[in-house]
Amino acid sequence: MINKTFALVPSRYYSSAFEFDPVLALLQFLHFSAIHTSLKLTRQSHSRILTLGVSQKSFLASKLILAYAVCQRPFHSRLVFDSLQHKNVYLWNSLINGFVKNGLYSEAFHLFNQLYSSNVLPDGFTLSTLSKVSGELRTVFPGKSIHGKSIRTGFVSDTVVANSIMSMYFKCGNFGEARKVFDEMTERNAGSWNVVITGYAVSGHREETWEFFKQMQMDEVKPDAYTISSLLPLCDGDVRKYDYGRELHCYIVKNELELGIDSDVHLGCCLIDMYSRSNKVVVGRRVFDRMKCRNVFAWTAMINGYVEHGDSDEALNLFRDMQTIDGVEANRVSLISVLPACSSFSGLLTGRQIHGFSIRKELNNEVSICNALIDMYSKCGSLNSARLVFEDDSLCKDAITWSSMISGYGLHGKGQEAILLYDKMLQTGIKPDTITTVGVLSACSRSGLVKEGLNIYSSVINNYGIEQTLEICACIVDMLGRAGLLDQALYFIKAMSVEPGPSVWGALVSSSIIHGDLEMQELAYSFLIQLEPENPSNYVSISNLYASSRRWDAVAEVRIMMKDKRLKKLPGCSWISINNKTHCFYVADKAHPSSGLIYNMLDDLLLTMSDAVVSSHLETST
What we know:
Elements: H1 22-35, H2 39-52, H3 58-70, H4 74-82, H5 89-101, H6 105-117, H7 124-137, H8 140-153, H9 159-171, H10 175-184, H11 190-202, H12 206-218, H13 225-231, H14 239-254, H15 261-277, H16 281-290, H17 296-309, H18 312-324, H19 332-338, H20 348-360, H21 367-379, H22 383-390, H23 399-411, H24 415-427, H25 434-447, H26 450-462, H27 470-482, H28 486-495, H29 502-514, H30 518-531, H31 536-548, H32 552-564, E1 573-578, E2 581-586, H33 595-621
Antiparallel strand pairs: 1-2
Helix pairs in contact: 1-2, 1-3, 2-3, 3-4, 3-5, 4-5, 5-6, 5-7, 6-7, 7-8, 7-9, 8-9, 9-10, 9-11, 10-11, 11-12, 11-13, 13-15, 14-15, 15-16, 15-17, 16-17, 17-18, 17-19, 19-21, 20-21, 21-22, 21-23, 22-23, 23-24, 23-25, 24-25, 25-26, 25-27, 26-27, 27-28, 27-29, 28-29, 29-30, 30-31, ...
């Protein structure tokens, strides 16, 4: 007889005894072991199972296998499994799923082959689990094998299995096979449509995505929160796509899809992101303020929206409110999102504070955070701090780390240091990408290292197979132009394999202004106006160019064009940050509350400067 009283070593979860069936108590303890990832409680439960002699009960063994797997001890799970005399498909599933959860995908497939050879037939859970693994690995061959076994065992008619197989094919880029599985399904649920819609959406097939969404509604399948969240990322860009996003927002409200806590957070994040990318950050903030539940992901989405919109002050204020008002602790992603808001000299102190926070939370060795810190320190003017982060021996550098430091040197006009670091990167075996190339070429351009820059350009194109991009070409034009080689820069533009964009012609404009080549300026501006007909700055600049040459007819013509197009140049703006508050000033601006004092100080400065000029003239004449 098994004693009906079951005592366990006191823990923070349970400290009392159970006065009921010990097997049920063990199931309860194993359940809590898995929830709280408590290896200690799992081992205590395992010990009690052995003591009571119930180790061969399959439902207990299944829970124990799962508990060890959740505690990141998959090979302990395997020992429990191997000790069982009779192994059914549920036990196999528990073990395979445990190895999958721990990222041991090859071992999971090996177990699947053992299952097959042991005369145990897989069920739908086995096949769907391994289909997902194939999708995550982006390897279609084992996925096709699972598909074949699903057909032979008849489980392909199971909706969950078919959905998993479709998802696998989409992730592997085999759209034809995925569509074939969908078309052959005898029964589809909302999940089936979601797999297809998400597969096309993630792959950038926008037209197919919207077409399937329409078909889904025609088949009277109601879109759920997952459907809408898959479609919202496609709603940025032009006005028509933005209108789609607003319609989806209306659908969410009308069908109360945001009522669930998880749905509220997920859909809220998607809406904030959609509105932010459509330059409607104010609307995104309204969504954020109305969310019933806001976790770190919701706060991060809103912070990122402000950063993308260029509102650094509001991003930093929101980052502080996240921790002080809601008590939400920043994670790796939120730190990476907020650091670009510190990328000015006035934001250096805040950037250092965020760096200190990352050290306290032991996130300072995360390569993505270090990359963001290097970029922030470089843009704040603290190149030494950026170098200290880069040279930390505990940092496992990736291509972005090297690119960030190279770009930092370039930003500070240290071309030789940038080239030396670039060469060192190549020696470590890391190949340059487009970002690295732009960084080192910009450094060469700012430092006047034309020969070195052209050699690097030739190397990346011919030796590393990097294709010309507008950014790379703009760097070359800027580099040649700054050196006064304007004709060579124009020849390079004409020989480009990609169509020159505004950045390329803008670089030629800047160089021709530096060297006073009015003819080249006019040529570059004419192309800029063709490429950006709605940009008023181009018209004002070319008008000023004509005015400097006293070509008043041409000036009048440009002004008429601006009037016909209803273009108006925004006034120039400068700003200064004092006590974490940014003060903006426009041309002839008197809106600031302290404008009277500011203009009085300006008059005093002008008077002082004029007195200094008069004094210098008197000294020269005597």
